[in-house]
Amino acid sequence: MTGPLQIVLGTISILFLIVASVMAYRAVRAMVRIIRTGQPDGTRFGPVKSRLKTLLVESLGHTRMLKWSSIGVAHWFVFVGFYGLFLTLVEAFGEVWNPAFHLPLIGEWALWNLFADIIGTGTILGILYLIYRRQKDHPRRQGRKSRFAGTNEGRGYFVEAVVLTVGVAILLIRSLKVSSDLTDAPAWSHPVSGALATVLPDSPDLLSIVAFIKIAVSLTWLVVISRILNMGVAWHRFSAFFNIYFKREADGRQALGPLPAMTSGGKPIDFEDPGEDDVFGRGKIEDFTWKGMLDFTTCTECGRCQSQCPAWNTGKPLSPKMVIMDLRDHLYAKAPYLLGEKAASETAPDYDVLKPSDEQVWASGYARIEGTNDAQAHRPLVGTLEEGGVIDPDVLWSCTNCGACVEQCPVDIEHIDHIEDMRRYQVLIESNFPSEAGVMMTNLEKRGNPWGMGGNVREDWIKELDFEVRVADGPLPHEVEYLFWVGCAGAVDDRAKKVTKAVAELLHTAGVEFAVLGNGETCSGDPARRMGNEFLFQQLAMENVETLDGVFEGRVPGTRKIVATCPHCFNSLGREYPQVGGEYEVVHHTQLLGQLVEEGRLTPVTPVDRKVTYHDPCFLGRHNKVYTPPREILDSVQGLSTQEMHRCKDRGFCCGAGGARMWMEEKIGKRINMERTEEALELDPDVISTACPFCITMLSDALTSKKQNGEAGEHVEVLDVSQILLRSMQPVAVGAQGAEQGADVGTKGDDVVGLDSAATDHDPK
Fold this sequence. Notes:
The protein has helices spanning about 5-35, 50-60, 70-85, 85-95, 110-135, 140, 155-180, 190-195, 205-225, 230-245, 290-300, 305-310, 310-315, 320-340, 375-380, 395, 405-410, 415-430, 435-445, 485-490, 495-510, 525-530, 535-550, 565-575, 590-600, 630-635, 670-680, 695-710, 720-730, and strands spanning about 265, 265-270, 470, 480-485, 515, 560-565, 585-590, 610-615, 640, 685-690, 715-720.
């Protein structure tokens, strides 16, 4: 059935294949060479079994994509269609020459034909749904709220058009084989194409033309992406597998929780004796590791990270997506200089700064300098518009380290690690950071806490209790089960001190033997590390490890237990201190209290008739996956009516204090704590509950402002989960040290806390 038409189309197809294959080979080789210019990182290769398992689960199972279920399902069909139906492209090369051509062995196999029919149809429906969602969520409709704001829409349209065209071609070819009686596969194996065949002509030539179109479109796509190495929306189809395999945590966890230690040349930096050529943080694009460069290459510009980012959602210039896009575009524009193909001038030229395009108007660091040129080679990684910086300082310092971007990213990009590495360079090398944060770091250096309070105040809260609290003096006695890490906020901040007293009283009531370090405790170092001052973090961490090893002297692993009320301390002590030799079993107070309630050692007896909504602290929830214990404690308290905010658990919204932003002014856009508090108040709660001293401060400040403006009832409170539990342990209207007051359940006349609450019966009887 080979005629002149088939010969012409077949010849063109073969020639096109040769050209496209050569271009693709050269593109992949160039991409690998560019990525290999990054710093080494030897932690990404093993264990192979765990990494392969993670790769299979995340790719075939689409576990990350399915966080957004409908989009995830649609993408799964497109994904499976691209790889699973690759053989239909191979078959198309035969069909161009001979319309009756079938793949050897499986071409007429019923199961293969059924698979191709179902997945081909799914691919078409899937891409149509994704096209619909792109248009529904388009910036022209949603403006800044669109997750596609800043995305290169033209590239997205191109990829969608290719997928749709190829999917339709697959079904048409199969249908034309049926209508032209060129297949012996049973009818049940091609239900969709068989139905479509009833309206198609008997035309082998048309089949060859459609096969040629399928080949031409596929190879055009390959040629285009070979010419545009930073086209992540297309290249992620290949690079995502490698990015997932080489992710930070081999067991499949996201790059959350601990920050990696600072490395140079693939080795941790010894801050006591650093090497002369050690690179501190990332000051140039080539300072990033090869895995960082792979991250940049893999970004699909889907905007999931952007849609969840608290900074972006409150009018700040930080978009995690556009940070990665900026770094990617700069990397590939500077690539000829990195590879030695071009030599930069000795001095930086005057920057001819470009204004961002309308599409990227919100991203202050985007599209300032285009193309490969000396300006690109010399531009600073972090700098203002006038300096031609790749990343604007306002972008860098807006990050709260909440982890929403990392949690949502379907291809495991490690946004926080990259942002923190750039901060490290700015702090340690450039000494360029928000001035108010400098006060915090000075306080940490001189006073051991961010507020600058004297060390002798750390035991003041103990004097307000009516029972004795053991203060560690040397190794802890055997009967002491837990060291209670109070934390800076818990010792010096008035609101957090109430939580400290509540937890201490609950532990005492449950008969848990515990001790505190008192004045011997100093900051865990979390604010310094998240600020980028790794040197100060190391100093504080090693001090604390020496102290903790002293009190745990003689104890074997499993008996070196610490309970912390601050999620930031909880994260540092338990997951970052092993980097400096500190190995401890650290639990958050909600975990321990939940365990005590479950064991019957704490029994809530007094109903607390209140409506409560719980706010997930980022460093307890997303960073450490502690979602259930606080909620179980609230569920154990009789009378409580609980309701979740629409952004909760792994989609929880930050309070605005993380990433050392507790000590930086919020000068741009809406205050993050105000946004979160408004979201809570929409539920008309009596209590906004949380489990973090930073969150208590931020939410309380916002609530106070709302009360002053008459936008919140005076009865509304911000309380730690432990305070609510303690209230439920007290008789009605009897106060407790850390609870502020008792349950106060009653009529409107004596309803001190729940005045006008929807969850309280105010009808006097």
